[in-house]
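Let us work through a complete example step by step.
Step 1: write down the sequence.
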Amino acid sequence: MKTSREFMINSATDNTKARKVSAYKLKLVQSLVLEAEARTEETKGAYPGGRFKRYFDIMRTYFQPLIITNMLTLLFLLPIVAWAFFFEIFGYESFGYLIANLDPKTPPYLMNNIGIGLSGGLPIMQAKSMLLSSYKVMAAGIAVLSPVAGIGIAGNIYVCTKLVWGESFIMKKDKYGNDVPRIVTEFFRGVKEFSGKMVLNVTIISVLVIGSILLVLEFVDSLLLGSTHAGHYIGLILGIIIALFTLMVSVIYLPFSVSYSSSNSKTKIKNSILLALAFPLSTLIIVILAFIPFGLVFTGPMLKILVTVLLLSFGFTHACLTMTNYADYNSENIIQPLYQQQIKTQIRTERKKAKAVEKQKKQNYKKMKKK
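Step 2: predict the structure and record it as tokens.
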């Protein structure tokens, strides 16, 4: 009888193209911990048209509930939003002068290291270094405030998971007699069930990502001041690797925290790491799709205003829905088929054992009867 691992290997080696599948990927997939999802309804099967179509169909069908979900999530992200707006209003440069014990209202004369007799001047590179100090403080503040954001993310991912699974919502009648989902009730149900775990998850992820960003900023700072050494280059490389890897694992792990609620965190982290390593390109694309809108905030002033409005209106739900859709894709096409095969194998094995026991009982009975 074939085990689930043998089934996976044989399925991957049925033809020439499949035999070229990396043994490294097969080994990672075979190491997955298989278990059932925490669904409350029967699976609806593969979505016709693929995952991108599912994303846009969900957006079109549930646009208003998704906007409400985003607004509810924003309530728990207000500390981070307020922190970011403080720097936008006060000014990164002014805050840098404040850190350096300079008066932000009377900025110093900037010179490019040539001002003989201009002792009151400030080298341009040093001024840029002060600006980086503002970014460091802002990034560190986001990490400190991230636990509160985890509460809203728990409710958002819970709603997105139900949408991706196609499960029914608690409904109510609107003034026209139509059934509409009680999205606020569903959101806070997710908060109640998953916020405890999600707060810890988001905090750890934020610390790792923000810490990596600080390493990169420290490298840039050393370049500006001309004090770069080997440690800065090592920090730059480690920062980029840790940030990317953390985000790649997170886009799978955060939805798994909801869709596999019965398992322990180690299992979900292990599966997320294995899937991210097995399919790095597709996972990296999802990271870009989910988070690139937030990077547009650092563009020109006019575009920044438009992007900020869009992010506050829909950005957080877009990120959660993108992650949830991708994580469910991995679950539907890899974990669940192998899990079902494993269950079937176990059932067959148990039946064989039962038949063997029954046969042995009959043989023992015949021997006793002869005696």
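Step 3: interpret the result. Confidence is low (pLDDT under 50) at residues 1-20, 115-119.
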